[in-house]
Design goal:
Blueprint lengths: L4 E4 L4 E5 L11 H7 L4 E5 L16 H15 L4 E6 L1 H12 L4 E7 L13 H7 L6 H12 L2 H20 L3 H16 L13 E6 L8 H10 L2 E5 L11 H13 L1
Parallel strand pairs: 2-3, 2-4, 4-5, 5-6, 6-7
Antiparallel strand pairs: 1-3
Helix pairs in contact: 1-9, 2-3, 5-6
Length: 257
């Protein structure tokens, strides 16, 4: 059974992979609308989350990349523009390295290249991200405090905290644990030849105030992949929700170049 997905907009296909604990419904609507003005944006749910089934085998970055590739096969898409945020950026790198002929251009948002050389979050921030304790509403507040700069996080929590809490309550805990193990394995193993197998032009973008995947990682990706680097001042980990039109515009310009 293929991954569940949603589509927005029209134009050349753009596969957009979401991050840890996130589903196809969690993308900022303004960001998707802006992207959809120049692309057919395909947003899947990773295995075991949202509308996607728990597929056979271990949940690894490589397995999620294979799932995404199988979805492209199902949709009859031979070559695609590919973008991934956070954990989704890790999956996107793996897919681009495994099937370089299938990826025309690659956009990496708030992510890292893996291995011990990646700059990881402060231990207390990472512990907050994967903390399953408390009510869904408490978890929502904790999560939003990591995704956005402090003052903005308070405002967003007041406006959308209940919605985030409801989405959080629907997440299967077994899948969250599996995704956490996949991310840990990504950071434990050196990239090896993976980066060298990525042949698509790359745009690496980050918010300068990201505490989940520190912004220095975008520079490391730019160096390793000869990528274009774009920093969004004042942006947190979910900077696409802070500057949706600007980021979408930068992505579409890169994809059209």
């Amino acid at each position: 059974m293929p991954l569940a997905y949603r589509e927005v907009g029209s134009g050349p296909p753009l596969l957009l992979l979401n991050g840890y604990a996130a589903t196809k419904e969690d993308w900022d609507p303004s960001f998707l609308t802006a992207l959809g003005e120049g692309a057919r944006v395909i947003c899947p749910d990773h295995r075991g989350i949202g509308g996607s089934p728990q597929l056979p085998g271990e949940t690894t970055i490589a397995a999620m990349a294979a799932d995404a590739l199988a979805l492209l096969d199902t949709l009859g898409i031979d070559v695609v523009d590919l973008a991934g945020w956070s954990m989704g950026g890790m999956v996107a790198q793996e897919l681009a390295a495994t099937a370089p002929g299938r990826v025309r251009r690659l956009v990496l948002l708030s992510t890292d290249h893996g291995g011990p050389d990646a700059v990881q979050a402060a231990p207390e921030d990472w512990a907050r991200l994967i903390d399953h304790s408390g009510t869904p509403r408490e978890q929502a507040t904790r999560l939003l405090g990591l995704l956005f700069p402090p003052e903005l996080a308070v405002v967003i929590d007041e406006q959308f905290g209940e919605i985030v809490a409801a989405a959080r309550a629907a997440l299967p805990e077994v899948t969250l644990f599996a995704q956490e193990r996949a991310i840990d394995a990504w950071h434990a193993a050196r990239p090896g030849e993976r980066l060298g197998r990525i042949t698509a032009p790359v745009l690496a973008a980050t918010g300068t105030l990201d505490v989940v995947i520190p912004p220095a990682n975008a520079g490391l990706l730019a160096d390793a992949l000869s990528a274009q680097l774009q920093e969004f001042p004042g942006g947190g980990h979910a900077f696409m929700a802070q500057a949706p039109a600007d980021l979408a515009g930068a992505m579409l310009a890169f994809l059209r170049d």
